[in-house]
Amino acid sequence: MVKKQAHKMENVPFSSIRKVFAEVDKLKAQGKDIISLGIGEPDFHTPRHITEALAEAARRGETHYTPNKGIAQLREAIVAKIRKDAGVEYDSEEIICTVGGTEGVYVALTSFLDPGDEVLVPDPAWLNYVHVPTMNGATAVSYQLRDESNFQIDVDAMRKLITEHTTMLVLIDPSNPTGGVQSYETLERVAQLAVEHDLLVVTDEMYEQLIFSGAKHTSIASFPGMRERTIMLNGFSKSYAMTGWRLGYIAAPLELIQVMTRTHMYTVTHTASMVQWAGLVALQGSQDCVCDMVAEFERRRNFMLEAVRNMKGFKCNKPDGAFYLFPEVSGTGMTGEELTKFLLTEAGVAVVPGTAFGAYGKYHIRISFATSFERLEKAAERMKSALNKL
Ligand SMILES: Cc1ncc(COP(=O)(O)O)c(C=O)c1O
Whose CA is nearest to atom 2 of ligand 1? Predict the structure, then answer.
């Protein structure tokens, strides 16, 4: 008989976000006109100079294995980027190039979690941070991010969750799904807590370049005593519109990197060689493409926030980063899951139910505004008229 799934997989469900994609694809294949605000990826194509760099690298013969951590040139460019943007100094040996940010999450968590360990994870959160601990026999313990505090971490509440089993703390900043950005003061207090309790901190900074005017992102790795206990995760998917390329990176002190390199080498060997060369051009070339995309995301954020705030039964915080709104929708009389179904059938608009990001999302939905302005206008109009019929 074919072996049943491993016990550790029994509580690991299929991604609810991916379920929405599958449903949208099915409806589109039936000829239905669906506007998807579910997907967490820029609608822009990767900038031309980056795609050209990939083609050029392939022609040049960059088609062989590379070092496990990635080519030295790319790792050096990542070191320079982190120095400039986060003000934290790494050596190029302290960088691993990964297969998207997702592999970085897997490698960081798998390398340091033992069965029985507890890891503090935000709720709501991108749920890899719940399921990867489960796959390692560890437990994700949720700390709540609440609407009323604009999704800032409640450090006193977080402190109460720490037990003798807590070994790791995860931050997603800016957040998927809330778009919230932690303030300097909040991060300073979280850093003190991590030092006090000797916790390893995983900081997911995938959206760190997608920050809107008036807001500022600070890396927790830059606080005193933090560099040595922080694993910084970042990547190219969101800021350079490179989701399909699968290129991310980990920065951490050498001692931690040596452990993660082994997980990485026995999982994927390294990320595709020509993709690494294109990543180098993304970092070293003009950053105007990033600025232009961020400016457009901000224009869409402003439009969609205003539209959503005027929808019957919706309340919504203003996100300072990423490309998501996370409205509270209990005023519609529906849960987030019911509303998601309603919007799909009655408005032809796909969103993601808040429960795809944890229990706190029961009365929330996630709306991605990483789609064209015209599509957003149309989606908002359709949502409004469907809700007005309630
Ligand atoms: C917070 C966060 N971290 C990591 C990732 C993974 O990004 P990638 O597509 O590079 O694997 C995502 C993707 O949605 C994300 O939202």
Answer: 206
